[in-house]
Description:
Blueprint: H1 10-25, H2 32-39, H3 43-49, H4 53-66, H5 68-77, H6 84-97, H7 100-109, H8 111-120, H9 126-144, H10 154-169, H11 179-190
Helix pairs in contact: 1-2, 4-8, 5-9, 6-9, 6-10, 6-11, 9-10, 10-11
Amino acid sequence: MPTGVAIRDVREQLFDAAERILLRDGPSELTSRAVTTEAGCAKGVLHRHFTDFDGFLAEFVLDRVDRMDARAAALRESAGSGSVAGNLADALKALFESVAVAIVALVTFRDELRARLRQTWPAGVPVLTEAMGMIESYLAAERDLGRLRADAVPGMLAPTLVGTAHLLFADRTGPAPRAEDVHRMVSTVISGALP
């Protein structure tokens, strides 16, 4: 892109380019040059808006985590309708078919990125910890509605569901798990918590 040409929504353009590369090629191919080439802009554009590449990646990860807020709200609002297993399976499938699994790999792959994220995200991998909070909140709402047993422990069920779903979706090279496989996993995990 020629110098002096205005780029609209630079951050979003760069974040979208990073997401495409991450999903298509994996974390090892995510470089500043790859991002700017994918975004169709000069390499200097990234460095004008971010302190360095790991700073860019940290903001990219946090931006994608923030996008989970709408998904979390929709899941909480589904409490009391449909089936608990169905709601959870749909939410987990939507989450892990997004960029979430690739972000986990990226955070694991880059030490400096993990260090940067620790400055604002003290524990865990941001996408996974946010997912656990989303699932735990939903399970607590379902327990309060009597659709889970009163002694169900959302704080234990949520990490089990998220961890198991992550394992189902972790292989980026093979086919994604089928909806019925995700539903069967969720049903198995929550079976003891149902009334």
